[in-house]
Amino acid sequence: MLPTSARxxxxxxxxxxxxxxxxxxxxxxxxxxxxxxGLRLRAGxxxxxxxxxxxxxxxxxxxxxxxxxxxxxxxxxxxxxxxFGHHESPISVVVLFDKSGSMADEKLMHAKDAVINFVRxxxxxxxxxxxxxxxxxxxxxxxxxxxxTIEREVKRIRIESSTRLYDAAxxxxxxxxxxxxxxxxxxxxLSDGEDTxxxxxxxxASEAVRRAEVPVYAIGIELxxxxxxxxxxxSLWTRLxxxxxxxxxxxxxxxxxxxxYPIVAAKRCKEVCxxxxxELRNQYLLGYYxxxxxxxxxxxxxxxxTTRPGVRLATRSxxxxxxS
Length: 324
Prior knowledge:
single chain, Rossmann fold, four-stranded antiparallel beta sheet, 27% helix, alpha/beta, six-stranded mixed beta sheet
């Protein structure tokens, strides 16, 4: 678990919607999905699924929220929670691994170690797909949880040239959106540089990850200095030359329920990856059938609240309605 000071820095860097996971010795007993308690699924109606992180005022994960303590709103209108899961919900994760030229030496070594330990921190029911990107996206194997196989593939990653982050984000969004994936889903990005060669734009990549409807987490390796000085998001330099690497990562994660964490030293990759794993394991999974059944392809804003005092929730900001 990261010290409180580090968690506070992460919240400040990533915005008010970021809430980090603490640690616990034992998870509570399994909480059954609502349909196991007699609630019938509705045929022909799209279920909206939300991964939700809950924290108390001390930034510790809250593990014992009950279904009736959640309130879900779509475009301001209350929705009925029809599905509820917690620790028992398996996870699918796509890891985007930057193997461009600037990731050489210690950065590559620490990033590899971080990903290997991230996979070890998941459960046997979870699955991971590694996509290494530079001038293209290389899928290393298939979705799975065989730690030895994943470790072998990660160790084989070699440095190449350019950085096609936006293209890779779109590829990851397509992979994680497959109906074959688990109930909980996420994308984790490890990168140290700005996009240099993508055919897609940042706007297109941002829209793709939002349509995937999963939390996106990003670790900006040795990019913390870009939060201030001439590279800051609101600086004249950024307005003239386009978004910096850290700003691009934030654009990909903001509003998804995930966050961006810039780190000064590559050796911190491991602790942040473990923080992501802890958050994913402890998220609640909520589902609801929207009262607005219009299949118009429009954006629907989502907010989730709890009736329990002192608890804060984080989830994605909305979704695009299906389109006939």
